[in-house]
Amino acid sequence: MAQDIQNAVIAVLIENESGALARVVGLFSGRGYNIESLTVSAVDAERKLSRITVVTSGTEMVIAQIKAQLARLIPVHGVCDLTATGPHVAREMALVKVVSHGETRTEGMRIADAFRAHIVDTTSGSFVFELTGSTEKLDAFVELMRPLGLAEVSRTGIAAIGRGPQTFYSNQESF
Amino acid sequence: MNASRQQEETNTKALSGAEVLLRVLVEQEVEVVFGYPGGAVLPIYDALFRQNRIRHILVRHEQAAVHAAEAYARSTGKVGVVLVTSGPGATNAVTGLVDALMDSIPLICLSGQVPTALIGNDAFQEADTTGITRPATKHNYLVKRPSDLAPIVREAFEVASGGRPGPVLIDLPKDITVGNAPLPTSGEGRLHRRYAPRLDADADAIKQTIAAMKRAKRPLFYTGGGIINSGPKASEGLRELARRTGVPVTSTLMGLGAFPTTDKQFLGMLGMHGSYEANLATHGCDLLIALGSRFDDRVTGRVDAFSPNSFKVHADIDPAQINKIIKIDVPLLGDVGRTIEALLQAWDGEGQDLSPWWAQIEGWRALDSLGFQQDMSPEAIIRPQYAVRRLYEMTQRLGRDTFVTTEVGQHQMWAAQHFQFDKPNRWLTSGGLGTMGYGLPAAVGAQIAHPDALVIDIAGEASTLMNIQELGTIAQYRLPVKLFILNNRYMGMVRQWQELLHGSRYSQSYSEALPDFIRLAEAFHGTGLRATNVGELDGVIEKMLAHDGPVVADICVAQDENCFPMIPSGAPHNEMLLGPDQEANAAKITQEGMMLV
Ligand SMILES: Cc1ncc(C[n+]2csc(CCOP(=O)(O)OP(=O)(O)O)c2C)c(N)n1
């Protein structure tokens, strides 16, 4: 039997109420599922909905379990496996602080330029870069900054959405 | 706001939250609440005092309130209701909630909470009840606004009983129950999207199942508690389906009674302490149809060796059960009763000849794996299996509707193996969580629900002591509950595992300083009886059954008896141990079994 570990990017629409996120996180911790990234924010004020994007990994059976378990939480409106339903875009944002002087300072700016990172704060001895992109791109940037005085990193985790005219509801799996 | 709505608001203006709560409970046809008071729920107790629609049963411990409500629910098919105070009241209820969650029992637990303004301040008797019970419930609520009260309670009933049933907790801050609350018109103000689990299995999946049933030479129905949860029609459907297809039936612990255990087509329970024929049939079948059962590890044993050559169909209302442990070929997602109905309609009676399969099964059955040796001389020591069999036979003669609850341990397995259940909802045991202390409060719940029925808790002496205080509840409500203790002076199941796996080092499993159960019964205004040998057994059972008040029967049984047959954990179904002196024998029989499968 194929026991290959695969990654899944799962979008969950959930009632924006207290305890809702705890339910989702508790489900993962209580059942020993992996969380690689988790983001959450309100997306629909009128219907009081939040969207969670969770990146997880496991065997095919485990991922099917995760989706079924998520779907049966009462405040969950829908579950959509973006990895399974077609191409999707996934983006992450990072704020990267570099403390440096002289040569390394210019080098840092040059790399930031190549990555299209914005400078959102600067002093004579430091920068804060803002960078958006795929997780891999962010990882690469952080690695390049490391020898140049990398001091602190803050990352948002992945937000993802399906490509094309299809929407969450049309892609949602029925349970 | 329209006129009638306005009218209603004025009408209900004077109602406190507690009164609104009780009104909604009445509307939900609640007749009984099991509970224990405290500061945070006093307004609710006051409202209870001033009405006579809902009966309150005062237990002696909140865990017992939940178990009683569980048994009430399971024996009636209704939703059980529990009322506990904040802090320690709620935390005491947690074991019961997890028990109900594991066994899919529909339950509402109303817990008191400190006033909204004090939440989070470490106020007296404050606990983060919704936090603590989040993984212990199917869903939980903290009521924050008076206007949410009625809709939340209504929704809670829907969630508790819909789909795969389970416990739902509603945390009620004191200001919510004290203050005024509007009573909305029925059905109004649902909070969440309609909670609507799918009820009818996919038509194509039904077709595939029927095709598989026609092909199968060695089919087997593996039935579980879901059939009982689905209601009596599911059990009737199962009987009809088994009769019309001739397929053998095995059951989980939770499913006992859905199919008559005395029926020729019933193979006994499967799993760790299941019968030889049920387990070898499970191992050797070519089509396994799981109906409302969830492939618990006590059933599957070694997962990769579970029913290795069968095509697998799984009917369950909970999508999360499908493919959870065992890869399924055809899922039948929906209410299992309706699924059985659909299968019955689609079955045209043209299956394979099952007589070779039955011949094989009869071969296994001939082994009589549940057999035991009882020396019948009057002075002989009582075998626990014999005590259960005599109890069953003697209750049969009475012809009364009989409910059996159990604690957890060897006695539970012997009760499952040797007591017979021909109707659903009569067997009340803690399957998923295996909670010692379940049986006595469960007997309270069953007896409250069925005042004229015979209710027996088949218990171990160690388990009995876990919720022994409920003898007080039994006395207060004059419940004629029979507590039938198979007293082996050991935590027998622990002792058995220590014998098999830990070199007979009986670390802490001997029940030292046991009470005198006769005097204990008397201290709680009941009757105590004791049997110490075979000669005394029938007399004690007879007296117990004849007495119309509560009885504690202390049945002193063999201390070293082990529960067989048994699949040692980690072994596949065809490697059962059949008995104490059969470890060598088992190998031989297993080989024989292997040849047959
Ligand atoms: C609350 C709880 N604690 C511990 C256990 C572990 N346990 C399972 S069976 C058992 C022994 C039960 O002894 P007894 O009630 O005397 O029954 P017997 O096995 O002797 O029939 C224990 C300690 C449990 N199931 N529940």
From TrEMBL, chain A:
One of its GO terms (biological process) is L-valine biosynthetic process. Coiled coil: none annotated. Pathway: Amino-acid biosynthesis; L-isoleucine biosynthesis; L-isoleucine from 2-oxobutanoate: step 1/4; Amino-acid biosynthesis; L-valine biosynthesis; L-valine from pyruvate: step 1/4. Keywords: Amino-acid biosynthesis, Branched-chain amino acid biosynthesis, Transferase. It catalyses: 2 pyruvate + H(+) = (2S)-2-acetolactate + CO2. PROSITE patterns: ACT. Its EC number is 2.2.1.6. InterPro entries: Acetalactate_synth_ssu, Acetolactate_synth/TF_NikR_C, Acetolactate_synth_ssu_C, ACT-like_dom_sf, ACT_dom, AHAS_ACT, AHAS_small-like_ACT. One of its GO terms (cellular component) is cytosol. It is an enzyme of class 2 (transferase). One of its GO terms (molecular function) is acetolactate synthase regulator activity. Belongs to the acetolactate synthase small subunit family. Dimer of large and small chains. Catalyzes the conversion of 2 pyruvate molecules into acetolactate in the first common step of the biosynthetic pathway of the branched-amino acids such as leucine, isoleucine, and valine. This is Acetolactate synthase small subunit. It comes from Kozakia baliensis. The lineage of its organism: Bacteria, Pseudomonadati, Pseudomonadota, Alphaproteobacteria, Acetobacterales.
UniProtKB/TrEMBL annotation, chain B:
Pathway: Amino-acid biosynthesis; L-valine biosynthesis; L-valine from pyruvate: step 1/4; Amino-acid biosynthesis; L-isoleucine biosynthesis; L-isoleucine from 2-oxobutanoate: step 1/4. Binds 1 Mg(2+) ion per subunit. Binds 1 thiamine pyrophosphate per subunit. Belongs to the TPP enzyme family. Keywords: Amino-acid biosynthesis, Branched-chain amino acid biosynthesis, Magnesium, Metal-binding, Thiamine pyrophosphate, Transferase. GO terms for cellular component: acetolactate synthase complex. It comes from the Bacteria. SUPFAM superfamilies: DHS-like NAD/FAD-binding domain, Thiamin diphosphate-binding fold (THDP-binding). The keyword Metal-binding applies. Its cofactor is Mg(2+); thiamine diphosphate. Transmembrane segments: none annotated. It catalyses: 2 pyruvate + H(+) = (2S)-2-acetolactate + CO2. It holds the Pfam family TPP_enzyme_C. Its EC number is 2.2.1.6. GO terms for biological process: isoleucine biosynthetic process; L-valine biosynthetic process. This is Acetolactate synthase. InterPro entries: Acetolactate_synth_lsu (IPR012846), AHAS_TPP (IPR039368), DHS-like_NAD/FAD-binding_dom (IPR029035), THDP-binding (IPR029061), Thiamin_PyroP_enz_cen_dom (IPR012000), Thiamin_PyroP_enz_TPP-bd_dom (IPR012001), TPP_enz (IPR045229), TPP_enzyme_TPP-bd (IPR011766). It comes from Kozakia baliensis. It is an enzyme of class 2 (transferase). One of its GO terms (molecular function) is magnesium ion binding.
